Amino acid sequence: MKMLKVHLANRKITFIIILIMSLTSCHANDNKDVTLLKVFFENYKKAHRKDSIFFKLNNYNGEIFKCYKSHLKLKKQPYGLGFPLNKIFLKKEYDNFYKQIVDSISSWNIDLIHFKDVYLQKKYLERENLMFLYVSKPVYTIDEKYALIYYRNEVEGVYFISSIEVYENKNNSWEKVSKISPY
């Protein structure tokens, strides 16, 4: 009887440890995304001379995987500005990238308090000719040294200026190293 109580207690402890680890893991991924998005938003505002961003909630990142697959199929390197993309577009990354694709109706679940001058789309739907920024959930390489983010601008349902940006993690700080045409 005593052995049964010890066994049940061990199972409860194991369950609690697994629960805590999974919650911590999800939180760590959110923090990683937030850290990268801060850099992305600041770069975007500088490059496009914007003082604020109206952010769409959808975060589908399948365009990154489509670009990756097409370049593997064609056996050519994607066009990237000033960066050897062969460090990222490797066959060994296939399963890794595929596992990171989120559902096409997936949405960001982050607190925008982390970002300066970034506003949610749903609060500004009534305004005409307002440009919204769609930003995908980042896709990370196996070693997490590189991350890719797909983005596009949208005005009243019309898309333009789409790109994939490549970021490198240098000393725990993300830095944009290239831009890829997704098509």
Helix- and strand-based class?
Answer: alpha+beta
Radius of gyration: 20 Å
Q: Number of helical runs?
A: 3
What is the tally of beta strands? 7
CA distance, first residue to last residue = 66 Å
Envelope shape: globular
Mean pLDDT: 78
Helix content: 25-40%
* Low-confidence parts: 15-28
Tell me about the largest β-sheet: 5 strands, antiparallel
How much of the polypeptide forms β-strand, as a percent range? 15-25%
SSE string, helix = H, strand = E?
Answer: HEHHEEEEEE
What layout of secondary structure does this protein have?
Elements: H1 2-47, E1 53-55, H2 62-74, H3 94-99, E2 118-120, E3 131-135, E4 139-140, E5 146-155, E6 158-170, E7 173-180
Any overview of this molecule?
The radius of gyration is 20 Å and the shape is globular. The chain has 3 helices and 7 strands. Strand 5 and strand 6 form a beta hairpin. It is α+β, with helices and mostly antiparallel strands and 183 residues long. It has helices spanning 2-47, 62-74, 94-99, and strands spanning 53-55, 118-120, 131-135, 139-140, 146-155, 158-170, 173-180. The strands form 2 sheets. Strands 3, 4, 5, 6 and 7 form a 5-stranded antiparallel β-sheet that branches. The protein has a two-stranded parallel sheet with strand order 1-2.
